[in-house]
Amino acid sequence: MVERPYVLLSCGMSIDGYLDNASGRRLLLSNDADFDRVDAVRADCDAILVGAGTVRRDDPRLLVRSADRRRRRVAAGHPPTPMKVTVTGSADLDPQARFFTVGDVDKVVYCATGSLDSARSRLAGLATVVDCGDPVDLRRVVGDLHVRGVGRLMVEGGGRVHTQFLTAGLADELHLVVAPIFVGDSRAPRFVGDGSFPWHADRRATLVEVRQIGDVALLRYALSSRFGEQ
Question: Residues 6 or more apart from 5 whose CB is under 8 A from it?
Answer without folding.
Answer: 46, 47, 142, 145, 146, 150, 151, 152, 153
